[in-house]
Amino acid sequence: MKIIIYSALAIFSLACFALAQQAPESVSIRVITTFDYPGTGNSTFPQKINDGRDIVGTYNDSNGVGRGFVRFSNGNFSAPIVDPNDTCNLTDGRAINNSRLVCGEYGVGDCSITHGFFLTHNSFSDFEVPGSMSTLVLGLNNAGDFAGEFTDTTGLNPGFVDISGIITSFSVTGAIATFAYQINSSNQTAGQYLDGSGIFHGFWREASGALHFPVDAPGSTGTLLFGNNDSNWMVGRFVNSAGTHGLFFVPPNRFFTFDYPGSTFTSLNGINAMGFICGRYNDASGVAHGFIAQVGGVPMANEMATEMKAYDSPSLVRPVNPSPR
Is residue 31 part of a domain? Predict the structure, then answer.
């Protein structure tokens, strides 16, 4: 296990943008360890981390085959996660809760169509939004509620949440596609959307359905949010002329950037209740490696002023109940 402890401000280029209300040194990010899924030539893509520090993600081997995995808190890895209905060598692990319920998606055919899945106790169950052509299950909380994105029969790509068996779809105004990437214990959702110009922006959604958008790191040409925790601290990444940078965001307007040393690509993908983060960076050869970090000195979140109401399409039918109960 590789332990890296540096001065966050000096080494990791942790910076607080002009919109922040507190000094840059108030927030620190400390890398604890790096990791790779075992095997030669694998690229490792961590996705989410639960409160026990188990991590779910995906690795791609040298042949481009994608498989899910769990990295347990003791550093051991699960066997490759392969949905039995996967026909295109693509099974993604997307989220894991404290009961070690795992969600994700798998591809069929030419991988242009995906179906969601849940995995618990070595048992798979499929999930599709009713009437959808394709479904991604991207986020999961400890109550078994979940979030994601789907393609409807008209070709639109809204996001959705499934809370206590009720599916609610929604789209950010003007978005081509809306991706709900994570849902916390308060049913707040974090994600990203693609606008009509092909640019990504972050958003977050209250349990009431109010949407806060766009969330754009200052100076970015694209911002993506992948996770939020129970304090509604959010992680993701953004792009500018200097590369791709990890992003830590506290509503309404506190943006912090994090760069893994020596890399021009860093992404923060998941954060748990204690502020432990899973993410990845690319080395000089473009190979992706996972890391675990911890954030400290975080200012309190506040309400954001601008909000839009979502378009809701509730359904009382859930084909699969993924709850470990």
Answer: no
